[in-house]
Amino acid sequence: MAQISTPPGIELSTATHTFLDQPQQLFIDGTWTNAASGETFDTINPATGELLARVPLADASDVDQAVAAARAALAGKWGQINGEQRAQQLWRIADLLDANVDHLAEIETLDNGKPFRVSRYDVIFAARHFRYYAGWAGKLEGSTVPVSIPNQFVYTRREPMGVVGLIIPWNFPLLMAAWKLAPALAAGNTTILKPAEQTPLSALRLGVLLQEAGLPDGVVNIVTGPGLPTGAAITEHMDVDKVAFTGSTAIGRKVMAAAANSNLKRISLELGGKSPNVIFADADITNAAKGAAWAVFSTAGQECVAGSRLFVERAVYDQVLDGLTLQAERIRVGNGFDKVHVGPIITETQLDRVMSYIESGKASGAQVVSGGERLGDELANGYFLRPTIFAHEDDSLDIVREEIFGPVVAVTPFDDWDELVSRANTTEYGLAAGVWTRDVAKAHRFAHAVQAGTVWINGYGLFDAAAPFGGYKQSGFGREMGKEALELYTQVKTVWVGV
Ligand code: ADP
User: Which atom of ligand 1 is nearest to the CA of 171?
Assistant: First the structure.
């Protein structure tokens, strides 16, 4: 059995040990295989710094094989079955996810570090995603179109895009795979899934479940490896029809360039954020402070919607800072298998990056109200950071403008409406926003004024398979979830019939 250390009293399931003991392989055309080059890379447990597994490093030749398998599957049985049959497949996948919640959550917590309880939710939400899109599989209707030319009957069909590349980040490895796979499969596409190199394991375990669910060979192919060469081989491929990407804005630009310079494949991009969260003086302050802490510190700030810019109406500024500090200091950070609220930062490199932002914040005169340091002692081998609160009045600071992707919030007072809206919108990003107030009209006014793809009123960070999600501005384009996601994975064909 693999020597994976867990906190005292925590035993991993036999299924997880068995999975980690076996060699990890690529999943191409229904077959488990090594990378053609034989190369591998390491995936590390961020809570302990220990090696979890060696995983094949796919290069362009492996991606070629995966694309060929996906193309063939599209032309095969999968391309012929109807929506109801695809729905049945999706339901089977959902049932298998539900039947393996604890096992998959163990893998996710080992590989990503997030608390086990949170990993379980990710698996449960992933299953819900497959069920939600199962419901759509048989309902992808076209329309009949009245035209001005006589004796013509015109109708539209909603057809799959074809072969679709799905590139996933490390913060929600299994859930984001579901965000993309479920609508892509519901619409009848075939896919190449590339998990992030930091967290490849849950996707590989999902591959086994997809086989168990009876998905035909080649419908989902799973290739593991870093952006270069693996991700780029997908985005540059001449026979990939679409890429759905979630990751940083910098890489999103590269994905778009690769699409432009290859076959003009369709792309959808869910990118970074620097989301404003606003507390008005008339809010339930205790609740708002709690919500604001959770908006940025859950997942150690490693989520694209993190409410990392907190605007507080000046009359309650000190009160909110006190409440936020109290919350931050109560947050237990540690190994995800312990009773903790928040796990580690994903890698040492990312931790160093976050620390350098904290140093730059301090150097530029922002005040550290709480946190700011790495955790040591029994957590010293992992990549743990204390939730960090900065108070500032200068929106030009790096910690205020740039996405940190760590547990760092920049809190600032505001005095009036126009100032608030202008400052909230002064960012290249536009993924999400929050607003806390008891004044319903003001809440909606802000929701309409803020340039963001999702706005939460008196809450933060809620998602549902039915609710569309995506960015304004440089946070990307295309909407995942809801019926909108089906637009990403289908194209409309218009048919003219002389009658
Ligand atoms: P993060 O900030 O979450 O690490 P990245 O944008 O670096 O985000 O990575 C998100 C996903 O994009 C990962 O699966 C990564 O391997 C992949 N990726 C990174 N670089 C490229 C690239 N040049 N082309 C395609 N995919 C890439």
Answer: 3
> Domain ranges in the chain?
14-271+476-495, 276-464
CATH number of this structure's domain 276-464, picked from the four choices 3.40.309.10, 3.30.470.30, 3.40.50.970, 3.40.800.20: 3.40.309.10
- Whether 393 is catalytic: no
Q: Which among 106, 108, 304, 480 is annotated as catalytic? A: 304
Mutate to test the pocket of ligand 1, among 57, 166, 167, 243 (most ligand atoms within 8 A of CB): 167
Specify whether the backbone of 458 is left (phi greater than 0), alpha (psi in -120 to 50) or beta.
left
User: What is the tens place of the pLDDT at every residue in 15-38?
Assistant: 999 999 999 999 999 999 999 999
pTM for this entry: 0.97
Spatial separation of the C-alpha atoms in residues 470 and 481, rounded to whole Å: 9
User: Which tokens hold the place of 360?
Assistant: 């730059």
227 Cα to the center of ligand 1, angstroms = 5
- Only one residue has tokens 């048919």, namely 495
Q: Which ranges of 31-115 does DSSP label H, i.e. alpha helix? A: 60-75, 77-80, 83-99, 101-112
